[in-house]
Amino acid sequence: MAELTKMVRPGSVAVVGASAAAGKIGNTILNNMISSGFDGKIYPINPKEKEIKGIKAYPSVIDIKEPVDMAVIAVPASRVPDVAEECGKAGVKNLVVVSAGFKEVGPAGLELEKRLTNVCRQYGMRMLGPNVVGLIDTHTPINASFSGTFPQQGEIAFFSQSGAMLVAILDWSAAGGLGFSRVISLGNKADLSEIDFIEDAADDPNTKVILCYIEDIVDGRRFLEVVARAARKKPVIILKSGTSQAGAQAASSHTGALAGSDLAYEVAFRQCGVIRAHSMTELFDLAVAFARAPVPRGSRVAIVTNAGGPGIIATDNVENTGLQMARFTKETIEELRVKLPSEAGLYNPVDVLGDAKADRYRLALQKVCADPNVDSVVVLVCPAGVTEPVQTAEAILEMREAFPEKPIFAAYMGGENLAKGAGLLVRAGVPCYTFPEPAIASIRGLVRYNELLNTPEEGGSTNLKGLDRNGVKAIFYDVIRDQRLVLLGSEAAEVANCYGIPATPITLATTPQEAVSEADKMGYPVVMKVASPKILHKTDVGGVKIGLKDAAQVREAFTDIMDNVHGYMPQAVIYGIEVQKMMPKGDELIVGMTRDVQFGPLIAFGLGGIYVNLLKDVSFRLARGLSAREIEIMLRETKAYTLLRGYRGEKPRDIEAVVDVIRRVAALVTDFPEITEMDINPVFAYEEGMGLSALDIKITIS
Amino acid sequence: MAELTKMVRPGSVAVVGASAAAGKIGNTILNNMISSGFDGKIYPINPKEKEIKGIKAYPSVIDIKEPVDMAVIAVPASRVPDVAEECGKAGVKNLVVVSAGFKEVGPAGLELEKRLTNVCRQYGMRMLGPNVVGLIDTHTPINASFSGTFPQQGEIAFFSQSGAMLVAILDWSAAGGLGFSRVISLGNKADLSEIDFIEDAADDPNTKVILCYIEDIVDGRRFLEVVARAARKKPVIILKSGTSQAGAQAASSHTGALAGSDLAYEVAFRQCGVIRAHSMTELFDLAVAFARAPVPRGSRVAIVTNAGGPGIIATDNVENTGLQMARFTKETIEELRVKLPSEAGLYNPVDVLGDAKADRYRLALQKVCADPNVDSVVVLVCPAGVTEPVQTAEAILEMREAFPEKPIFAAYMGGENLAKGAGLLVRAGVPCYTFPEPAIASIRGLVRYNELLNTPEEGGSTNLKGLDRNGVKAIFYDVIRDQRLVLLGSEAAEVANCYGIPATPITLATTPQEAVSEADKMGYPVVMKVASPKILHKTDVGGVKIGLKDAAQVREAFTDIMDNVHGYMPQAVIYGIEVQKMMPKGDELIVGMTRDVQFGPLIAFGLGGIYVNLLKDVSFRLARGLSAREIEIMLRETKAYTLLRGYRGEKPRDIEAVVDVIRRVAALVTDFPEITEMDINPVFAYEEGMGLSALDIKITIS
């Protein structure tokens, strides 16, 4: 999106509301613009001043009469729309609206924000804000913000929906020496949002890692598209808050009840390759890791330590985190045996012993880093009497030089005695912590990103054959004309059949004769159920008969059910009686869909049957673009998969058919946004090659 | 255990191996003893010196001729047993053996360690070590160690099985101003272990928190007893490493297969009230929290912040951690409304807004701390322009003074701009972090401890009636005489009945007539199964017949099964055919037992049936002392409990009977250590008042 270039790298900037009075935001912004080293033109706008800080001031942007790339606006909210209008007339294309007092203060503010947005749209202007701290790019350089701190130059782009957090992080990172390429406060996101800035930063040569703190997403579909692309170019790490407000989900389907409020974000982030941080500590530990270390080729970690206990703790941590302890080659072990003292630990973790000086660390690290079975290395240093923290740090830096493709992290477990060594590492860009856990957690983040890069990009379910869209439309048309939103079982089965989903045969019969002729067609035994939108508990009113073996039984059942239902609920409208074929029992699965406001339909798969909400063995994916490969991974996340592979000596089930059904359900709910909820529970799965039967299909439309 | 008093508070100490040569461990220890301010007598022992550091030296402890309370031994390992012998003869009762070269170096060292331990036993000496850094008590004061750092006085007792970690922590804590009451290196734990030191520290008036790093436990049973008592006196926080080595558990029972290698520790720690840390960061964050904050009365947290975003993040964290956001009283909200600006957030989190100075924080904190619905408080401070970090810290300290029963934690989210305020808090003993997460994690630790203190202590299952020990013994005797370890189903049922566990009626019949008479007695229908220790898959050889409705069918089944089995496996020894009553189907549960080397029998409860290993819905407890109340909690941890309460409109099951069966199984496996494995799967649970039926009972003995 070339559009944003002038936003982060403008040639000229007007500061509307610029002021000579210390303490005013307009003063801080102007000072920041000047002191940032911005080398374009700066135009202070203030009707009461001739010049500010030695720069000629203008009453309005219109008066400048030269091209202005960007205007930073810091005037009272009520005046902002007019100022924006002037900017529009003057041909300014980019606004940073610092002023607060919009959507965040209530309905009147929202009204004002809408006016502002309309002005922007009218003049084709892009806007950051309103209600932002501003925008910083350390490489341009520009500091169009009222932040008190201008960060060190670095490779991290940080976009924050909370201005306070942004200011806090700038203050905090200054102490730790962490550098940024860009820091942007997102504010009310009335126009530009994290999506635009992620897209732009993905192509920014100065940015290596993209970091976000967000509280919501404005356009889930665009987020998915843009971020999925960006995440393949560089790591996108997001802390999304507001995960705990469970809210009162009024879900009437199984699938809806199983999906928590945070689920859609979890699934969406995962599917578009976002690395999700769950705390601020994690967000910044990951940022440091990605900025400073290469992405490893795999998950095999080597540990070199001068003490046993910490080595064990680190080993636990590696394995509990889902990483692997590297198994060294025979050559490595042999060389370590020759070079290290006889009491040293030669296997992973390598224990160079408490009396190790830097040279012994160097020897061990050389062998370990060179081992092809090692993907990343953690060096633990405890302060023993002879430990050489600084020289050991130098050895670590040499190894980074010699093995640039392998991440090396350090844990210097101590205080004063190790401080110089730890400081040397941090300044030289080797992540160094007090305890091993954050080092290992960071490596895990790197490894996950490597896995994403190794996942081939895939298209969705576009190559499915035999989808009868018009058939489905016709059924929905009839249902709506009948003033219903919930489909009858026979209607839902018809819809399923239109999309090649193997529904168990079921038909609505209105007379005993019809019931018999339908049963004859599908074959015995059959089940019969009253079809009435008002009757929810069919069994309770004598509305269900099972195991009917012949025409006589079907005929009798028809009359019985009608009599029962009329007896219990004389007022109920009855559509007829549904006749369904009784299928041989298979493994019970559920395939379902719930719809997320932001990200659209989510597909669920897992163990089905009456215990579905008890067992909660369900895996979710976004329906959009769901590939067969991803479905296979989805299946593997469930216990149901163990059944499908053939549990306790049983034959494997027809997994191919399961994958196919999930693809077809995904296609159906993507093609028809009017399907608000859908459950197939149970789906009976049979042996390999024998397919499935979708027994009970519930579809609700809107 | 008054025994340890002279170990941590000796009146006189001999340093064996004391040396004048800098760099020698015996030199460091003597220096440390002197510089620690130890006010008892110090006797350097060195046959080559007349005096060291101006103190008269002795050739041997025997030569002192005055009472010596403790000897610190730092001579080559090979000489240690002789030195210990001399100490014994001289009447020394406490040894700290610093020397390494024992168990940790292999078989010869182990031999030496055994000799040393025997000497100690012979003379009634207690020993710390060998292979330790030593022992520090800052209140005595004494530094009988070779640690380079003598910690600040404080209220944390730290016991570490890793000497290197101990030294690292002392170095690290010196920088952070963390103080300790005692620091003890546990080494090889040949005599004294963490159990002894925890027991002693529980009664040490200078210790408020007990902290341990351990790699194993020497005596699980004593650990449980001692630590359960200690944990009610003060918090015991343990980091136990070696959790990930899954090891090759050759478990033949369901229960054994479901129990991971770390499970016994997890269950044992939980049951005796240990607060388990899972990382070094967590260990020390918890230590700080317990040392510096009171234990709150409940789990309701209030947050006061000057910025929205961090408030949301903290709220998420509170809820995701299992704590609750406090709901303020109407009065509090009304008072906040009066005192705070109109845009302020009055509900929890309280947002005092970005322009809040210290006075506004003070106002808000006063109201929030006084609210009876608030148990603990987290204060977030972001660096806005007008923020007053130091004065805000002072306000926080005032609140701690005014509300000493409520923990107040702070997160100062920034660097340089907030450093002075954060420093003030830390020095004054208010835990202050950069990000909110560790503050909230620490509060959770405090809340857990409060829950432990509120759990009444309970005896075990001693009041169970109708336990026929001799009956069980007789059955085991017969099985062993028959050279078997696995009981037949009918034998296992008999054992169960001896302990009042309602086994489904099952008897071994050796003739068709016997089978019929047994079936007549128990009532039809029945199941018949071949009883042969060699036949594992009874169905495969035609060894099972179900649903037998009368005497004729039983008679025929007997002959059929015998014929089938003889046909398939002519060599198999057949004990006869087991006749079992067919019970009405109930909810399928599992009750089982697996035995841990350290902690004895573990009881499992959960969803049973053929899918038990698939669903893995199992909760574990130590059998020893398992109370009915604890069993209720155990049940609630499982999905099976949802079934028991009556799932989807079903009537509740007989939960009382389930609790009773678990108590009886616990009693059985505690009384009979020879039971190595036991599974009851399924147990059928029926409606309230209808009890259970233990269908398939497997018992293996040794």
CATH-defined architecture of the largest domain in chain A: 3-Layer(aba) Sandwich
CATH class of the largest domain in chain A: Alpha Beta
The number of distinct helices of chain A, counting runs of at least 4 residues, comes to: 24
CA distance, first residue to last residue of chain A: 36 Å
Enumerate the strands of the largest sheet of chain A in spatial order, edge to edge or round the barrel: 9-8-11-10-12-13-14
Oligomer: homodimer
What spatial form of chain A do the alpha-carbon principal axes imply? Answer: flat
For the record, the count of structural domains of chain A works out to 5
| Helix residue percentage of chain A | 25-40%
Flag low-confidence runs of chain A.
Answer: 245-251
Largest sheet of chain A: 7 strands, mixed
- On the 0-100 scale, what is the average pLDDT of chain A? 92
Using only CA atoms, what is the Rg of chain A?
Answer: 32 Å
Approximate strand percentage of chain A: 15-25%
Q: How would you name the CATH homologous superfamily of the largest domain in chain A?
A: Succinyl-CoA synthetase domains
| CATH topology value of the largest domain in chain A | Rossmann fold
Question: What labels would you give this structure?
Answer:
Rossmann fold, 6-stranded parallel β-sheet, homodimer, alpha/beta, 5 domains, 24 helices, 39% helix, 702 residues
